[in-house]
Amino acid sequence: MTKTFRRFGRGVVTAFVLAGVYASAAAIEQRAIPSFTVTRLDGAIVDSRQLTAETQYVLLYVRPDCRPCDRLLALVGSANSPQFTSRVVVLVSGETNTGAGYVSRQIPAEAGPLTWYADTDGGAYRALRLTGAPVLIGVKDGQVMWSVAGVLNDASTVESVVRTWVTY
């Protein structure tokens, strides 16, 4: 009976946690992705409305000196699915060369094509009104639909959220 109660209790707690994540994500005001520019590896400047050709994607904001960011990028790299990585856009805080080294250390080439940009002047960070990293932002048709910020310790939950959004 005790084991059954524990399983039931864990299930209830999991349901409340997931409902809380959904509620907080659904509660944010949907708004157009703000205007900012970021830099590609080749030095080209890219506008926020041209980050990807995908209409629905996950925007990840990370910093190279951030362990939770490392874990998040490792999770993206371990997906080993071009369909998955093609619908993820990574913004790396800092200089372009630093971002290139950081992304290549965290995500193997076998993971599939990954679009990433350097936020060299912090403009994306300010425009998106971020307060830390890492941050996951769900974008659909140019609208910010949800966001999750902070330390994301449960890799399976994060993977589920990202995978569900990019395959929805």
Topology:
Elements lengths: L1 H26 L3 E2 L4 E3 L5 E3 L8 E7 L4 H12 L3 H4 L2 E6 L2 H11 L8 E5 L3 H5 L7 E6 L2 E7 L5 H13 L1
Parallel strand pairs: 4-5, 5-6
Antiparallel strand pairs: 1-8, 2-3, 4-7, 7-8
- CATH superfamily placement: Glutaredoxin
Number of helices: 6
Integer-rounded radius of gyration = 17 Å
| Morphology call | globular
How many distinct domains? 1
Average pLDDT for all residues: 79
Strand runs, count: 8
Strand order, largest beta sheet: 1-8-7-4-5-6
Portion in helices: 40-55%
Going by helix content, strand content and strand pairing, the class is: alpha/beta
Low-confidence stretches: 1-27
CATH topology: Glutaredoxin
What series of H and E elements makes up the topology?
HEEEEHHEHEHEEH
First-residue to last-residue Cα separation: 39 Å
Given this structure, which CATH class is correct?
Answer: Alpha Beta
Structural description of this entry:
This protein has six helices and eight strands. The chain has 168 residues and is α/β, with parallel strands linked by helices. It has a single domain (29-167), classed as Glutaredoxin, CATH 3.40.30.10. The strands form two sheets. It has a six-stranded mixed β-sheet with strand order 1-8-7-4-5-6. A two-stranded antiparallel ribbon has the order 2-3. The model is unreliable at 1-27 (pLDDT under 50).
Summary of the model, kept short:
This protein is α/β, with parallel strands linked by helices and 168 residues long. Helices cover 42% and strands 23% of the residues.
Features:
single chain; 168 residues; alpha/beta; Glutaredoxin; 6-stranded mixed sheet; 8 strands; globular
